[in-house]
Amino acid sequence: MKLSNIGFFCSIGLFLGLFTACESNSSNTIEASPYFNLKDFLENQAVMLDSLKPSVEKIALDEKSPTPKKFKVDDWKRELRLFIETNINRPVYIGQYSVDSSKSNPQKVIYKAKTDDLSTRSIEIFYNQDAKLDSIKIFYKKQNWLYGSERDALLTFEQNAAKENRLKNYRVKGFQSTIFGTRQDYEVVSKVLSDDL
Questions:
Q1: Stronger pLDDT, 59 or 16, i.e. the higher one
Q2: By the 8 A CB rule, do 61 and 35 touch?
Q3: In the predicted model, what is the mean pLDDT of residues 25-36?
Q4: Within the chain, where are the H helices?
Q5: How far apart are CA 59 and CA 72, in angstroms?
Q6: Could you please report the per-residue DSSP string of 36-62?
Q7: Rounded CA gap, 50 and 70, in Å?
Q8: In angstroms, how far is CA 53 from the centroid of its own chain?
Q9: Dihedral sign of CA atoms 91, 34, 122, 76 in order
Q10: Rounded distance between C-alpha atoms, residue 183 and residue 27, angstroms
Q11: pTM for this one?
Q12: Under a CB-based contact definition with an 8 Å cutoff, are residues 49 and 192 in contact?
């Protein structure tokens, strides 16, 4: 083999080694994030609920005559997409949120945006006296010259027989407005029916 070919293969090997090292460092950065991993947590909930197939009772409180509707969710990841999208556990957000945790029982951890240009303004994580996840509150706000959007979301959990967290209720309240002066308010409350589990 010619010396020039050996040099070429050595260069490729060095490049691949550096590329792998960079990938390894970036995954360490993700693991080292100081924020609660909402995306992974809710995607795991979605997998669990897809397997259990519980019914959901949903009511739109902004309707003139709110009527509960019971149905089965075909895809829980899609159902919880609105909450999953507010995930702040990404490398780009590290350092962009302050972390405030209370030592009291039940424990509360608050992640608050340091600037108004971040759409997810705050996430509050509440734990019960057994240090199990009790609820998650999310405040989202996005504003530009074309439209405005704001929503408060709340997810509550209960522990199953195996002491695993399982989604119990989820609620979204907010509004969307446009430059033309139109505004749509909404409030939807959903309950995962434990009778089906």
A1: 59
A2: no
A3: 56
A4: 3-31, 38-52, 76-79, 81-84
A5: 14
A6: --HHHHHHHHHHHHHHH--EEEEEETT
A7: 16
A8: 21
A9: positive
A10: 42
A11: 0.79
A12: yes
